[in-house]
Structures are given as structure tokens and as C-alpha cells.
Write a structure and sequence with these properties.
Blueprint: H1 3-18, H2 21-48, H3 57-82, H4 101-114, H5 116-129, H6 135-158
């Protein structure tokens, strides 16, 4: 096989993998996170941080809150649904059905660290794009771009196979 054929085959394999059920679940969770993000962004921008009238205060505060709430939402649903097969479960005869709070907190920390690039990318892109379009549209575009890096990081690290 020549280099072009190898590249094409690898690209098709990547596309097949991205369209697998796990990525679709991740996308659905991401869509719910987008709704949460936009709702919190709107409420923060229009109501919660109304007293911050500076050119930068209101968008920064409302966007930070929106990203934090959406991250917790996405972690919860990705853990319970997207990567449920990779979450360590106690033996069936164990009395404790939920993981200890410390391991859940550690996994949330890993999720947040694994997603930091996407979160930072979303934050910077939203603020940059908001100079030329409505802040809500800018936020949606930034979320779409950042979602791919979040999937790869969390699939390979936070919820990796043991």
C-alpha cells in the first residue's frame, strides 16, 4: 500500500470509531451539557451577574459558572451511561453499591483535568468569537470544536479500560 492509501484507510478507521456507539453517547451527553451550559450562561449573564456592568466582568463570570455546571453534568452522565462498562463496580455480594466518595471525587478530578484543554479552548474561543457574533452562538461553536478533544482525553485516561 502506498502512503495515500494507508492515510485513507486510517482516516476511514478513525471515522468508523468516532461513529461507534460510545461516541454517539458522548455526543448525546455533550448535547445535554450544551443545553445546561447555555441555560446557565443565559441566567448568569442576564440575571445573576447583572451588577457586573464592566465590559469583561459579566461574560467572564457567567461563562465560568456555565462551564463548571456543564462539566459536572457531563461527568455524571458520561460516568453513568457513556463509560458505564468501564466504571469499577463492587462485587454483587458487597454491601456497598456506590463507590466511595473519595474515588468518585478522584474520578471527577481526572475528568476535569482530562477536559481542561477543551474547557480552555471553549472559553477562549467563545470570548474571541463573541466579538463578531452573539455570545450564545459563539459558545455553541466553541463547544462543538472542543468536544472532540474531550472525548479522546476521557476515553484514553479518565475512563480507560483496565
Amino acid at each position: 500500500m502506498n502512503g495515500r492509501a494507508i492515510w485513507r484507510e486510517r482516516s476511514l478507521a478513525l471515522l468508523r470509531w468516532l461513529l461507534s456507539i460510545r461516541y454517539i453517547k458522548f455526543g448525546m451527553v455533550g448535547a445535554s451539557g450544551t443545553v445546561v451550559n447555555i441555560a446557565v450562561l443565559y441566567v448568569g449573564h442576564e440575571y445573576l451577574f447583572q451588577s457586573l456592568e464592566g465590559a469583561q466582568g459579566k461574560p467572564y463570570a457567567s461563562l465560568a459558572l456555565a462551564i463548571a455546571v456543564a462539566t459536572v453534568n457531563n461527568f455524571t452522565w458520561n460516568r453513568l451511561w457513556t463509560w458505564a462498562d468501564r466504571v469499577t463496580q463492587p462485587p454483587k455480594d458487597a454491601d456497598i453499591q456506590a463507590p466511595p466518595a473519595s474515588s468518585l471525587g478522584a474520578q471527577l478530578a481526572k475528568y476535569a483535568l482530562a477536559s481542561w484543554f477543551g474547557i480552555g479552548l471553549q472559553y477562549v474561543l467563545t470570548l474571541w468569537l463573541a466579538h463578531s457574533m452573539h455570545y450564545m452562538l459563539a459558545n455553541v461553536i466553541a463547544i462543538v470544536i472542543a468536544s472532540v478533544s474531550n472525548f479522546f482525553a476521557n476515553d484514553r485516561w479518565t475512563f480507560r479500560k483496565h
